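Teaching assistant's notes for section 4

Start the section by putting this record on the projector. Ask students to predict, before seeing the second block, whether Peptidase A1 domain-containing protein will look compact or extended. Collect guesses on the board.
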Amino acid sequence: MSDGNPFDPTQYYRFFNSIVGTNFTLAIGDNSTSPSDPSLTAVLAFPSENWQLFFDSGVYFIRNYDYGSKYQMGVTEGNHSVPVMLPAGGGLGMQWNITKGTEDVGSWVLRNRLLDQVNVFGIDPQAESKNMVVMNTDQKGAQWIIDINVSAGKITDVKMLTTFSSIQSATSTSQSTHSISTSTSTPVANPAQSQLPSDATSHARTISAGAIAGISIGGVIVVLIVLALLYRFYRSRQRKTSANISLHSKPKWQSSTQIQEVPNREVAQRHELYGNKKNTAVAELPAGVHPEVMD
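Reveal the predicted structure now:
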């Protein structure tokens, strides 16, 4: 026995339910080609009432006297409620936690690792027949007295005493089915490891998407800057053009109408001046002298 394991892997044990008593024990009937489902039968009726509790990597594997290392008790993905005998392997459905019970001194409680830990291995106290074992949440029907049956002898089969090369982790999603063997078996790929390439690809795609988004935003900013510069340049040219037009255009006071009015005004002034002088000269002639003679 190792640390944390109160059960000897070289011994056979019998299971008695606290409700039914010691007149019935867990067994799988007569030895046949394939094992029957576990149930409570009359004590000493079958050799299959003897069980090995093999401890490996912190969990228990429950094997039967008649079938040795070939089969183990467990539950399947398709049927969580009724324990059956399954081909031996390290899958979660064949892994059991065995802890001390809460009602009777020396009682134990079994939980399967494939199921939620509120589910326990026992009988239904409300059922009319108490010989059928099930997985349910009733703690009262799940108290087991587990005793060594010395008369069954010791376990000497090497295969029944050899640990698994690997067992399925509770965090894994796939069930491994390694057989007990002294030789090294081919490791089963860890689902978490097999997902690493896809995770890396997803990460790379995420980075690429971020880079594309950054480039797009940068391109938009550049376009906006170019448009702003072009608009500024256009406004600058427009202002210069307006300034040049204002510089070369004629002032309002030099309009063609006003330019023509200036000579006309000067001519009128000259006519007025010369006309007055002529009239003045005529007015000052001596008496009896006619202008015609002066001419």
